[in-house]
Design goal:
GO molecular function, one term: transferase activity
Radius of gyration: 25 Å
Keywords: Transferase
Largest sheet: 7 strands, mixed
Number of helices: 18
Protein name: Putative phosphotransferase enzyme family protein
InterPro entries: Kinase-like_dom_sf (IPR011009), Mito_inheritance_9 (IPR051035)
Strand content: 5-15%
Structural class: alpha+beta
Number of domains: 3
Distance between the termini: 69 Å
Amino acid sequence: MAEPVFRAVRSDDTEHDITEGELYRYTRHRWLYNEAYHLSQRYLKFNLQELLKAASIAIDVKGFVRCTKILKCKEGLNNKVFLLTMTNGIEICAKLPHPGAGPSFYTTASEVATHHFLRDVLNISTPRIIAWSADRNNPVGAEYILEEKAQGEQLGKLWQDWHEWPMRARAGVIEQVVQMEHILASTKFAKSGSIYFREDIAGSDPLAVISPMDSTVLERFTIGPLVEHRLWRGERAVMDLNRGPYNDAHELVEAIAMNEKKYISLYAHSRMNYARSVTGYEQPKDAIDLLDRYLQLTPAMVPPKHEADIHSATLWHPDLHLNNVFVDPKSKRINQVIDWQSAAVLPFFHQCRVPPMFRHPRPIDDDLNTLQKRPGNYKDLNQDEKKQIDILIASEGIHKYYLGTTHNQNQRHWVALQLKDDLRTQPAHIVPNIWEESNVFYLRRALLRIVGAWEDLCLDRGPCPVTFTDEELAQHAQEAENMEAVSGVLTLFRDRWGLPPDGSVESAGYEEVKAELSQMREAFIEAADNEEDKFLAEKLWPYQDTDERPKRETSHRGLYKEFKYDIRGKVSEFEAELEFFSGGGKLIWFKR
């Protein structure tokens, strides 16, 4: 019997032959730092023949159907996805979570139950699941989901074609997404957590909602622990932590801090934080002390009640980007929305956002009726410069049209979106993995803002229970100067060359990007005017293998997935930008 053909999709959507070994390895990206770790979190060896057998039985109980082609789809960071072509012409999508995607069993069990809830209860179209296993001890040797191939074309393949997809067509897609979000926002749950089938969570109660809904359709579902990977990272996977269900927003806000305190007290060790000091170590007790202050300030971290009810727990798509939406290219209608892995039921204000597929990469002003104008010298620019300006203006228009449509058609989401940058909601997003992600500074900054606004946030609670000493404030200000400067350089990398904070680069351009970045690093260090500043610049350089350096993260997950990584010939421009940042080549921002 002939073996199936092994193929993979390139970044330009063409196909090429691969070996069986490449099915198990992550090959779409490489990393500019900590590459071995990133790749290990995405390597998955499984029994291929058993997976194909499961697919055959799923569509033909006698198992007579065989697989003729295995197409490795473009890899996401959390899953391997294969399109299996069978002898009867049927195409099956096989999805296997990477080791770092989330907790074993729970991640897959929750994703499957969430799919069924969306299809069967809310009538939101997702691909039909035909077989699955959340037990990695199965014959395949890995958790898997087999589902029908999504109907239509990925929107990401079509969105760049302005001839076929003018603004009118894009507006139609925006309106359809807002309609789907309105369905989600209209379903309010009694508790926060992840959705499961009741048989998968021992002793669980039927799913409870506070929206009008037939209780009989809810009996097969329940709310169980969150599968968000940060709650299970590293040693947390075997710790007894409170991952839900949570009865209300206050319980959630407190639980995530208690979880981090428990983890840090057991597993964190002192380390260098050069943005804070070039001589002293950052101690775990510093983070624990900050979390204790956080817990004292939690009354200010839940927004006041509103008639739109932004507190009730709500199911939301975790990463709605262009490639997760499948459309009919002719009718421009959305057929299906995919990738609900790790979708959670959380207080609405805690997780609502503008979807990455519509998000403008720059700040948006409050006036939704006007757009940025072309510059006065527009007619003198070359075609590439004009195109870039027009793309940015169109991107702003898409973002604003989404906001305007949400304002008109989904008022609950609109009200919640007004809290996007609210100082009350920021700390709870920073706390998970605060030590590993070197976010102690960012949490301290968020708490200082709450302390400064305590009387306005908590009118009936008396004096603020938390204070910071003058010494703490001075040291924080010193660290802030260094962090702000390095963040400026990282923003430069992001805006000018598309490099995300995790250092991931399309594999085809890795060596070229790495060489260019090496030259940038030299320019960055040489811009310092003395050996001490050069030492500090070297330690603060973001893209390097070391556990000591402060890691930079972004809260806009998925924002850079559509960007292309191209920094060819940019070193001289980088040096010019350094001149601007540093005031004549001296890194005046570094403070010791």
